[in-house]
Amino acid sequence: MTVFAVSKELPEALQGLQPAPLWRFFGELSSIPRPSYKEQKVLDWLKLFAEERGLAWSQDAAGNLGHIDMVTEKNADVQHDFEADGIRLVRRDGWVTADGTTLGADNGIGVCAALAVLDSPPSMPLPPLEALFTVDEEVGMTGALRLDPGLLTGRVMLNLDTEDWGDIFIGCAGGGDSALTLDLPLEPLAGAAGGWGARGFRLGGMLGGHSGLEIGEDRANALRLAARATAAGLAAAPGVRLLALSGGDKRNAIPREAGFQLAAPDAGALEAATAAVRAAADAFRLEYGALEMGLALTEEEVGSEARRAGLTPAAADRLLLLLLMLPHGVIKHSHTVPGLVETSSNLASATIKRRTPESLTVELVTCTRSSLDRALEDVRQGIARLGRAAGATVHQDAAYPGWVPEPDAPVVHAAAAAIQGVTGKAPAVKAIHAGLECGIIGQKLPGVQSVSYGPTIRGAHSPDERVEVATVAPFYEATLALLRRLAQAA
C-alpha cells in the first residue's frame, strides 16, 4: 500500500460547513492528487478507510474499488502539478471552489457522501450497502467498462454524480471518442535563421466547460477559433507558413485555450499575418458578445530553432481541413424530450505528439454523444471518413452505452419522495446529455434499478468548477432519507 500524507486538518474554506463528516472527507480527498489513470493514492486512502472501520473491500482487475478521478484543468497562469499537489480550496459567495484549477467536486462530493454514510453510527437505519468507487471515469469510463460484476450483489444503484440539486436523472447519453493522427511533413524555411520572422499567438480566457452538459450553450471552442485565425493569417500574405497548432486537453471538456505559430519570409508579410489574426480575434469577440467576455488574444516570440521548418502548404491544409470541418456542438435536439440535446460532438484537443526535423505528428480527439446508438455511430463514421480523407490514421474504441429511462422503477419513486420530503417540492425527473456510468453498469447487472442525483455543481471540467454549499446538506439529508425508505422496503 502506498505511503502518502493526507491532510487531516480541515481547510479554512470548509470550516463550519454541514454535514461535517462529508466536508471533512472532502477536505482529506482534496489533499490527494487523483488525475485519471493515477488514482492509486486515493484507492489506498479508501482501503485504509475500510480497514479502520472493519469494512470488507474488494478490488477488481480494472482497479475499481463513485468515480474517484477528476478532470485536471487549470488556468494558464497557475502553477499546479496535478500529480503531486492537492487542490487549494476557496469559499466564495456561498460556493466552494478551487484556486485556479478544477475542484474535483465532480465526483468528489459523491465519494465523500458515500464515505459519510459508511461512517454512520450503528444506530442509523440503513439497508445492506455496497459502495462502488470506479476509476478513470473522466477519460472514457474505462473503470465501469471493465467492472467485474462479481464485485456487487445489490440491484438498486444510487449514482451520486449529477450536478443539479432538486432534479433526479434516470437516463443519459452514450458516447464514444475518435482519435485522428496526422503525420505532417515539414520543410526547411530558406534563410530561417536570418530574414524569416515568426510570431506565436494564443487564444484563451473562454468558458470551456463540460462537453455534454454545456455543449448546448454555444460556448466558444478555442481550438476551432485558433484554426479560423490561423487560416486568416495564412491567407494574409504570400509565403506565410504554419509552424505548429495545438489546444484543448481533456476529451470531455470544451477547449478553453489554443495556440499556434506563424512564420513569414519578411517583416511585411509577418505584420500582415499578425494584423489578420488580430482582426479575427476582434471578430470572435463580436461573434460571442456577452457570452465570452474573457476571450483574449496574446502574442509571444518564437525562438530561432522553432522557426527553422514549417508545415508544407498542403500539410497545413490537411490539418485545418479537420479542425474547421470536424463536427462540434449540437447536432440534433430530441423530438421526445423538450430541450434535451440528443446528439452532439466535441472537438476536444489537438496535441503535438512528436516533432522531428522532417515531420510533425498531431493527434486530434473528438468526443461524440447521443441518446441513440445509431445516431452516435453515424456521426462517428462521418468523423472517420473525414479523417481518412485528410490522410489521418483513425482509432475509435467501442462506444459506451446510454442509460434507458425507467420512470416507473420503485427507486425512482422512492428518490422523488425522499427529495420532496427534504425540499418540500417534487423533483423534476430528467434525462441528461452526458455520460453517466449507470448505463454501462446496468448492462453488467441485469435487473438493476438506478437513479442519479447530486448537489449543484457549476463549471465542471474547468477552473471555474464550484459546488453550491447550500445544496450539499439537503443532498446528504435526502440520501439518508432515501436509504431509510429502502431499508424499510427491504
From TrEMBL:
Pfam family of the protein (one): Peptidase_M20
GO cellular component, as recorded: cytosol
GO molecular function: metallodipeptidase activity
Swiss-Prot/TrEMBL GO biological process terms: proteolysis
The organism's place on the tree of life at top rank: Eukaryota
InterPro entries, alphabetized: Peptidase_M20, Peptidase_M20C
Name recorded for this polypeptide: Cytosol non-specific dipeptidase
Record organism: Auxenochlorella protothecoides
